Amino acid sequence: MGGLLAGGLPATAQLPAYRPLATDLDGSAADACARVHTGAAARPAYASLSHRQKMAGYDVKYYKLDIRLANNSRNVGGTVTIRARTGSQPLDSLAFELYNTFAIESVVVDGQASTGLRRKGLGDVTVGLGRPVAPNTLFEARITYNGTAPNSNAAAIGNALNTAVVRTYNVSTTWSLSEPYNAYEWWPCKQTLTDKADSVDVWVTTAAANKVGSNGVLERVTSLPNNEARYEWKSRHPIDYYLISVAVGPYVEYVNYANPIGGPRIPIVNYVYNQAALNYYRTEIDRTPGFIENFSALVGLYPFADEKYGHSMAPIGGGMEHQTMTTQDGFTFTLTAHELFHQWFGDNVTCGAWEDIWLNEGFASYGEYLSLGAFAAPGADRGWLNQAHTSAMSQPGGSVFVSDTSNVSRIFSSRLSYKKGAAVIHMLRYLLNDDAKFFGVLRTYQSTYRGRTARTRDLQRLFEAAAGQSLQHFFDQWFRGEGYPTFSLRWNQAGGQVYLQSVQTASMPTVTPFFQTDIDYRLTFADNSTRTVRFAQTQPVRTLAVAESRPVVSIEIDPDQWVLNATGAVVRDAGVVTASQTARVPQLSVYPNPCREQLRLADFSGPSARAEVTDATGRLVLRQTVPAARPVLQTATLAPGLYHLRLLSPDGSVVRARFVKE
Fold first, then answer.
1. DSSP for 542-607?
2. CATH number, position 445
3. Do 599 and 519 sit in the same domain of this protein?
4. Are residues 563 and 611 in the same domain?
5. I need a surface site. Which of 180, 391, 471, 641 has the fewest CB within 10 A?
6. Backbone angles phi, psi at 607, to 5 degrees
C-alpha cells in the first residue's frame, strides 16, 4: 500500500530547491509510511460472514458515485448506483455495506423502492426487494445517503475519508483512503476483493474553486449554480472497491507525458497543492514518465494507457495507489516508483485475498529497486537491497503469508509484506537465472490476470512453467515458512581443488528447519581476479569441490546478495580435506533425483563440459555437452533405472554423480 515514504513536506514556507535525499535512494525512509500503519486500529472492519455470504449472491458490474464533497469537511452525501448480475439463485434482498452513522434516505432497485431496511454491526445493510430479481439477471440499485465519515483511523494509514489543512501551503484538502476494508466509511459498496466492478463513474460536486481527482478520464467539468462545479470522471477498466478514490482541493494542475515503446502517449495529470508545491516537487514529479516507460518495457505496457496516470496530493503520511491517480503527500524517488508499480501489481492484477498482500506490496517495493537500478547513481539499488534484507532479518521469524487478516498492521507489515516480499521476488529471479524468463513470467502474469485477481499459487504455477520444475519447496519455505538461513563456510585448497564445506542454520528451526537454495561463492585469487561458482545447498552441511589451481586468498558467500541470508564465519581450515578425500574424484550434486525430463547439475561452474552417462552395466547410453549458462542434462530419452554421470571439463577435471531416472 501505499507507500513506503512519509513526510516529504518542507518544514517552513521558505521553500528551497528540491534535492533528492540519500536516505530515500537507499530505501531506508521507506519504513516511515508502514510505521503509520501500525497506528491503525487493530479491530477488523469488514462485514460479518453471514453478510458476506448474502453479498455473494450478486456480481458487481458498475458503480457510479454521484456525491457532494467540500475540501474542508468529512460530510458526504448523494446517490451511489450499483449495476450487478444475480447468481444462480433469485435475489429477494440486497446486501451491501455502509457505515452505521450514515442516514440512508432511499434504496431503489429496478425502479421499485425497497420494502424494508435492516442494519447490523458497523456497516451491514440489508434491504428487502418488492420484486425478486431472477437468477442470472442484470439489475440496478440506487442508494441515496448522507452523513459524516467517521474519524476512526481504521483504514491502513488513516481515515477512509479525511480532511486537513496543509499549513505549509495554507490549503485545505479532503481525500479518501479505503484500503483494506474501509470504503464503506464514505460510500455504500460491496467490499469483496474478487468482485471487481467492470467500470466506474465518479461524479463529485464541490465549490468551483476546487479540483477533484479520481479514477480514469475526466469527461467534463459541469458548471452549476451557487458557484459550484461537478467533476465527472469515468474509467472503463475493472477496479476493486478500495481503489476507487477522491481528492478535493484548490489544486494546481500540472501535466507531463510518458511515451512507452509500443504504446500511446500517456498523460500524467498531477493535482498539486499550489504553485509553491509544484516548484518544490517538479524535479521529482518529472521522474514519473521515465518510470512508466521503464516499467512498460520490463513487464508490459502501462495497463491504463488509454486513460491516464496521475497524482493527487493529500497529507496522508505516504502514498496510496488509487487506480490511475495515486494519492501522495509528497514526491520522492522511491515513493513515486513504488506507487506507480502498484498500477501493474495491485491495481491491474490485485491480490485475491489479503493473505497474499505481498503480491501487491512486495512487487511495488521491488519496483523501487528496479527504478534505482535504472535511474539512480550506481550502487543505489544495492544499497536499497541491503536495507531491505536488514529489515526482513531484523527479527528471526515471521511469514510473508498473512495468517491474521483481521490485523491491519500485520497485513501492511513493512518487514514482511514489503521487504521480505521483495526479497522473495529477487530470489525467484535468481532461481530462474535468466532475466528474459523472469520478466517474461511477470508479463505473462499481467496478461493472464489482467483486470482480475490472483493468488500466490497462480504466480507459483507461472514460475514453475518457466523453471521446468516444481517450486513447491521454494514457496513452502519462503512464502509460508518463517525466518531465513545463515551460511558459514570452512574451506581449503589442495591438489588443484578448492574444497568448500558449507553449513546452513535456520533462524526459526521449529518452523522452517532448512532452506533448499542455490548459493553463490566468490573466490578471490592472489592477483585480485575472481571467480563465482554456484552450488545447491541441498542439505544443512555440504562439502563440495571445485577444480581450481590458482591460489585462493579469500571466499565470499552470496556476494551479489541474491539470497535472503545472514553470513557466519568464513574460515580456511586444512581439516576440510583429508588424504582419502584428495584421492577421491569429487562428487557432483544433481537434482531432482529421481528425475524425469531433466537433471540439474547443482555444483557445475566454469566453461561448458562434456557429460557421459552409463547405465548399471557400464554401457555408455548418453553423451551431451552441458553449457555453462544452463547446467542441465536432458534425460527424457533414458529408460527408467540407475545411472552414473561423469562430467569432464576442458581443463581435464572430472566430477561424478549417480542418479535415478523415473
1. EEEEEE--SPEEEEEESTT--S--EEEEEEE-GGGS-HHHHHSPPBPPEESSSBSSEEEETT--SS
2. 1.10.390.10
3. no
4. no
5. 641
6. -75, 175
The reply to whether 278 falls in a domain is no
**Burial class of residue 14 (count of CB atoms within 10 Å of its CB; 0-12, 13-18, 19+):** exposed
473-520 pLDDT, tens digit each: 999 999 999 999 999 999 999 999 999 999 999 999 999 999 999 999
Q: How many helices (H) and strands (E) does the chain have?
A: 14, 36
Q: Residue 648: which pLDDT band, with cuts at 50, 70 and 90?
A: confident
Mean pLDDT, the chain, rounded, equals 91
pLDDT (tens digit, 9 = 90+) per residue, 226-274? 999 999 999 999 999 999 999 999 999 999 999 999 999 999 999 999 9
For the stretch 389-395, contacts whose Cβ atoms lie closer than 8 Å and that sit 24 or more positions apart, written own/partner, are: 389/419, 389/423, 389/561, 389/564, 391/31, 391/415, 391/419, 392/416, 392/419, 392/420, 392/423, 392/484, 392/564, 393/484, 393/507, 393/564, 393/566
From the number of C-beta atoms within 10 Å of its C-beta (0-12, 13-18, 19+), residue 312 rates as: buried
How far apart are the C-alpha atoms of 464 and 308, rounded to whole Å? 34
Helix, strand, coil content of the chain in percent (nearest 5): 25, 35, 40
Q: What is the pTM of this model?
A: 0.85
544-567, pLDDT tens digit by residue?
Answer: 899 999 999 999 999 999 999 999
**Residue 620's domain is classified under what CATH number?**
2.60.40.3080
State how far the Cα of 109 lies from the Cα of 513, in Å rounded to an integer. 57
How far apart CA 645 and CA 586 sit, in angstroms, is: 12
Q: Which cell is 27 given?
A: 530505501
Is 398 within the bounds of a domain? yes
On whether both 475 and 492 belong to a single domain, the answer is no
Q: Above 80 in pLDDT, residue 293? A: yes
Residue 234 three-state SS:
strand
| Per-residue pLDDT, 7 | 34
- 490 shares a domain with 409: no
Are 252 and 275 spatial neighbours (Cβ–Cβ below 8 Å)? yes
Listing DSSP states for 145-202 in one string gives EEEE------BTTB-SEEEEEETTTTEEEEEE--TTT-GGGTS-B---TT--BSEEEE
H or E stretch at 457: helix 456-467
Q: Domain range for residue 605?
A: 590-661
| 651 within domain boundaries | yes
Are 553 and 617 within one domain? no
Of the residues 583, 614, 647, the one at which a domain ends: 583
Asked if the model's pLDDT at residue 41 lies above 60, the reply is no
Check whether the bond before 180 is cis (ω within 30° of 0): yes
Domain boundary residue among 415, 449, 480?
Answer: 480
Instruction: Note the pLDDT of residue 197.
Output: 98
% pLDDT > 90, the chain:
78
Peptide bond into 260 cis (omega under 30): no
Residue type, position 478, single letter:
W
Shared domain check, 506 and 439: no
Cα 423 to chain centroid distance, Å, stands at 11
Please count the structural domains in the chain: 3
Closest CA to 651 of 529, 543, 497, 521: 497
**pLDDT greater at residue 58 or residue 43:** 58
Instruction: Identify the bridge partners of residue 557 per DSSP, sorted by sequence position.
Output: 521
Do the bridges between strand 552-557 and strand 517-525 make them parallel or antiparallel, or are there none, so unpaired?
Answer: antiparallel
